[in-house]
């Protein structure tokens, strides 16, 4: 299977906002969008997206994971970007119809269908720099994905960046291309200079998250992660892991903490990144001011990290009871 994000199914769903109203959702063959070069999104980044997965369980049935949360988050992002906000029901219909239209293309476990709802400002007007787009396109494309760790789990190396910001204090909770663009230079430099996999953004020495995933530590039986204050993305994987961990006896500490604290905890801790694509990616080492620190003293994949990962994937794939009703059958 091609790398994550490069294979697509044959269908997409689309809805348009024009003349103050949304069209119905239409399923159509996957095809390029026809955009005028003056389209709002191409100049003023009026775009937001979501990422979620559907799984084909062993009995053949298809299940989505917590998609209501993705819909709420997409609508919040749309509001922040002054885009027309699609109703909950419209986004739900766009997701469900897109998945239903490609049921035969959903891989078996450990593969899944990655779903990418996207909303863009489609007004044809480069003069609208100072206001939201009055037209929009909502579309949902889907991508068959294999086992994220088919090559084995390799602990990641993170560069601690205590200078740059990934976003702004309030815009960090918006799932928008602009935040990715803002973090690219730092990530590219971290790769070139330190062979780092990702950057952990810690403006003014305050730990936040990486460019595309939340950052979580486990110290003894305590889960430590930055609180949701608008500066970081409220990850659905993060939320699920915190709930699972609490129910299996972990203390949960959502708080503000510094790079100094992080480094002092590191020898006796585990650390990982959380997000839909990989679910959990263990962190093995962290670089700060040119010095590499090994997580847990040895840089190995954390045992508790992998236990939490298994507990969550077991729910997503129907291998254990879903006490929170997080999965919904298509
Ligand atoms: C999407 C995203 C996450 C993870 O969110 P999930 O809902 O867990 O997939 C974390 N951080 C950023 C910046 C993101 O864009």
Describe this structure in words.
With 330 residues, the chain is an alpha+beta fold. It has helices at residues 40-44, 67-80, 88-100, 177-194, 236-247, 259-265, 303-316; strands at residues 11-18, 21-22, 26-29, 47-49, 52-56, 62-65, 112-121, 136-145, 156-161, 198-201, 214-219, 222-226, 251-255, 269-275, 279-288, 291-294, 327-329. A hairpin with a 2-residue loop joins strand 11 (214-219) and strand 12. It folds into 2 domains: 11-145, D-amino Acid Aminotransferase, Chain A, domain 1; 156-316, D-amino Acid Aminotransferase, Chain A, domain 2. Pyridoxal-5'-phosphate binds at residues 51, 175, 209, 212-214, 233, 235-238, 274-276.
Keywords for this entry:
330 residues; binds pyridoxal-5'-phosphate; 2 domains; alpha+beta; 17 strands; 9-stranded antiparallel beta sheet; D-amino Acid Aminotransferase, Chain A, domain 2
How many distinct helices? Answer: 7
Beta-strand share of residues: 25-35%
Domain unit count: 2
CATH superfamily of the largest domain: D-amino Acid Aminotransferase, subunit A, domain 2
Give me the secondary-structure category. Answer: alpha+beta
CATH architecture type of the largest domain: Alpha-Beta Barrel
Rg result: 20 Å
Strand count, sense and closure of the main sheet?
9 strands, antiparallel
The beta-strand count equals 17
Share of residues in helices: 25-40%
Name of the top-level CATH class of the largest domain: Alpha Beta
> Under CATH, the topology of the largest domain is which?
D-amino Acid Aminotransferase, Chain A, domain 2
Give the overall shape. Answer: globular
Order of helices and strands: EEEHEEEHHEEEHEEEHEHEEEHE
- Name the bound molecules: pyridoxal-5'-phosphate
What does the average pLDDT come to? 96
End-to-end distance, in Å? 24 Å
Low-confidence stretches are none
């Amino acid at each position: 299977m091609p790398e994550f994000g490069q294979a697509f199914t044959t269908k997409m769903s689309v809805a348009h906002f024009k003349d103050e109203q949304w069209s119905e959702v239409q399923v159509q063959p996957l095809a390029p969008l026809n955009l005028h070069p003056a389209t709002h999104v191409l100049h003023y980044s009026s775009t937001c997206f979501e990422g979620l997965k559907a799984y084909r369980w062993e009995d053949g049935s298809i299940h989505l994971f917590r998609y209501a949360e993705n819909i709420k988050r997409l609508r919040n992002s749309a509001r922040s970007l002054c885009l027309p906000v699609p109703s909950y029901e419209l986004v739900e219909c766009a997701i469900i119809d897109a998945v239903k239209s490609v049921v035969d293309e959903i891989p078996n476990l450990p593969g899944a269908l990655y779903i990418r709802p996207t909303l863009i400002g489609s007004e044809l007007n480069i003069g609208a720099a100072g206001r939201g787009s009055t037209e929009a396109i909502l579309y949902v494309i889907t991508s068959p994905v294999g086992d994220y760790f088919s090559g084995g789990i390799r602990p990641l190396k993170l560069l601690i960046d205590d200078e740059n910001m990934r976003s702004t204090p309030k815009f960090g909770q918006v799932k928008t291309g602009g935040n990715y663009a803002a973090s690219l230079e730092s990530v590219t430099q971290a790769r070139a200079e330190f062979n780092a996999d990702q950057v952990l953004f810690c403006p003014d020495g305050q730990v936040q998250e990486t460019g595309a995933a939340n950052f979580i530590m486990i110290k003894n039986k305590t889960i430590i992660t930055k609180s949701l204050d608008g500066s970081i993305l409220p990850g659905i994987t993060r939320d699920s892991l915190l709930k699972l961990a609490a129910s299996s006896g972990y203390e949960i500490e959502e708080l503000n903490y510094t790079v100094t604290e992080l480094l002092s905890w590191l020898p006796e801790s585990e650390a990982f990144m959380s997000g839909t694509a990989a679910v959990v990616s263990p962190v093995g080492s962290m670089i700060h001011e040119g010095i590499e620190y090994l997580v847990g003293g040895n840089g190995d994949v954390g045992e508790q990290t992998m236990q939490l990962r298994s507990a969550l994937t077991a729910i997503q794939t129907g291998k254990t009871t879903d006490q929170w009703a997080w999965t919904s059958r298509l």
